[in-house]
Amino acid sequence: MFDYQFSLTQTPAELEQVHQRLIQTYNTTAHEGLLKEGFVPPIPLHVLAEAKGRLYSPDELARKFAYAVFPRTTNRYGCVTLHSYHFYVEEGVPHTQVLLWVYGEQLRAVLDHVVLAEYHCRYDGHARKVIDIRDGVFYPTRFAPPQGSLLPLNSQESLVLYRPQLRMPQARLPVSAQQLMLFEVVPTG
């Protein structure tokens, strides 16, 4: 309903103002669902009357959503690893801690309240583990390197590597049983 107005904002303050207007418009506009239920008038503000939601502090919200937040540090190429999946976040933030948020079927990489990348994922709540990550979307941000990328990535070119963890540590083979090099330089003279 307000996507166009949100897209016009330039600062967090402007975004907050547009969000407040959205809430005001939503709460004072008749809704088809309320009409079908027989509410007169079918306006959320009148239906809810004095009912108010609960306000939570940022610390309380972080605790409530902690199961879905994974802090990770990017490598020198701007990639992170989460539950055996290795994927790109943002080249302009090497060796930086980012937050990976899993919500529904979305995984978002966030730094300073800025979404760097988004992936489609499946999360197993019982195992508390991501079981699939794919289809990356990357956003232009203030963190991008000033020189830009030689080959910019898009969702079709994003690569997610799955690195299964080994169950049993492998024993080292004796030198005589190790595979020889394919090409070996031998002195001939």
Describe this structure in words.
This protein has 189 residues and is an alpha+beta fold. It folds into 2 domains: 1-53, no CATH class; 55-164, no CATH class. It has 5 helices and 8 strands, in the order H-H-H-H-H-E-E-E-E-E-E-E-E. It has helices at 3-8, 12-27, 32-36, 44-48, 58-64; strands at residues 69-73, 79-82, 85-88, 97-103, 106-111, 114-124, 129-138, 161-162. The strands form 2 sheets. The protein has a 5-stranded antiparallel sheet with strand order 1-4-5-6-7, with no helix packed on it. The chain has a 3-stranded antiparallel sheet with strand order 2-3-8, with no helix packed on it. A hairpin with a 4-residue loop joins strand 6 and strand 7 (129-138). It is elongated, with a radius of gyration of 25 Å. The model has no long low-confidence stretch (mean pLDDT 78).
Overall shape = elongated
Helical residue percent band: 10-25%
* Terminal CA distance: 81 Å
Strand order of the largest sheet: 1-4-5-6-7
The figure for the number of domains is 2
Ranges with pLDDT <50 over ≥5 residues? none
Which oligomeric form is depicted?
single chain
Number of helices: 5
Major sheet characteristics: 5 strands, antiparallel
Encode the helix/strand succession as letters: HHHHHEEEEEEEE
Number of strands: 8
Return Rg in Å: 25 Å
Which structural class fits the helix and strand makeup? alpha+beta
Estimate what percentage of residues fall within beta strands: 25-35%
